[in-house]
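thought: user wants a sequence for this fold. calling inverse folding tool.
action: design(structure=
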């Protein structure tokens, strides 16, 4: 097995699972040799996981400046000396969850090809005026809003340099904002709009998305091509940038670690695993993440993908009112709690998490 590329911070590596970059040759996997009985398409983004720096700064920015709810405070199950911070809507519904592994002593990553390079959130139409003023108030630099396809986009970076976008469009009516956070509900982040992949050669990734994962072409302009999956609308889009002259990225602080796609049941996930293995991909076994189950694999350009189950969700060990208010461990790590707590820096939780 081969260690994940880019995990070079020189402190810890993920010890429990590895994904070989078998698709890095750029070829699209061949026809499946296993079952092909997946009855549901991927229904959009489940979550995105990124690498942060200082955990308190990450918490303050996402729960404070951006107004997301901290829905789970735990550790990276593969690296228990590292926090795992989950942010999302009121219940941490799939499609709203941005998570972080904070590596406070690590170097800044390099943005480049073979990476998911931008995370985009949906916001209501006519809300970008509010957000430009809020970013100014918090001394956060941003690019002037611009049109892209049928939406208006406001681009900026988090304190560790992770590229973010707020995408204003008319499809947010049925999504649920975090109502009692620091951002008024009329302007609050809803769910993901999509992610952007940067690729040295976009063709193999595009073919993999459409022929293997069930995405469909949506729009194209210059070096950017958009694909959608599941139902139309926010949370179902991936933009692929063709950047043949750009260097390969390095995963570290300020970069995306992986993108997880949704599947509704454990059975569907098993069927997806068999299908992907039949295509010749190096896909992990199903891994229990307590709040969902996961399989991991790489697309042809090298971006780490996951397929995660919608159930059981974040209320399996906290009620809805108390989400994010306690430091929680899975049963297999609970005997190590004193040691784990002693190795982690203290965190000051946002007031709503302590009082709900």
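)
observation: tool returned 356 residues.
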């Amino acid at each position: 097995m081969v260690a994940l590329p880019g995990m070079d911070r020189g402190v810890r590596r993920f010890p429990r699972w590895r994904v070989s970059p078998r698709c890095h040759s750029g070829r699209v996997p061949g026809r499946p040799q296993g079952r092909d009985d997946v009855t549901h398409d991927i229904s959009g983004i489940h979550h995105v996981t990124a690498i942060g720096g200082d955990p308190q700064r990450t918490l303050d920015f996402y729960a404070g400046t951006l107004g997301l709810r901290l829905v789970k405070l735990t550790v990276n199950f593969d690296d228990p000396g590292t926090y795992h911070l989950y942010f999302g809507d009121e219940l941490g519904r799939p499609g709203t969850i941005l998570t972080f592994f904070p590596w406070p002593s690590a170097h800044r990553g390099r943005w480049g090809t073979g990476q998911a390079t931008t995370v985009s959130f949906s916001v209501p139409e006519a809300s970008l005026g509010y957000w430009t003023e809020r970013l100014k108030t918090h001394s956060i630099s941003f690019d002037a809003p611009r049109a892209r396809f049928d939406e208006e986009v406001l681009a900026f970076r988090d304190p560790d340099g992770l590229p973010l976008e707020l995408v204003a469009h008319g499809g947010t009516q049925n999504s649920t904002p975090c109502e009692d956070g620091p951002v008024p509900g009329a302007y609050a982040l809803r769910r993901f709009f999509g992610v952007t992949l940067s690729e040295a050669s976009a063709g193999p990734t595009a073919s993999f998305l459409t022929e293997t994962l069930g995405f469909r072409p949506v729009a194209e302009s210059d070096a950017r091509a958009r694909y959608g999956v599941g139902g139309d609308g926010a949370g179902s889009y991936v933009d692929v940038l063709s950047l043949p002259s750009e260097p390969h990225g390095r995963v570290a602080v300020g970069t995306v670690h992986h993108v997880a796609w949704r599947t509704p049941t454990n059975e569907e996930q098993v069927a997806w695993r068999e299908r992907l293995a039949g295509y010749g991909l190096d896909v992990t076994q199903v891994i229990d993440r307590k709040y969902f189950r996961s399989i991991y694999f790489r697309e042809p350009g090298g971006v780490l993908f996951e397929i995660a189950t919608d159930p059981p969700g974040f209320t399996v060990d906290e009620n809805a009112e108390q989400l994010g208010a306690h430091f929680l461990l899975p049963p297999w790590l609970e005997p190590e709690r004193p040691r784990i707590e002693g190795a982690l820096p203290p965190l000051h939780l946002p007031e709503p998490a302590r009082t709900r």
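thought: summarizing for user.
answer: Here is the designed sequence. The helical segments are 55-65, 128-137, 202-211, 266-278, 337-343, 351-355.
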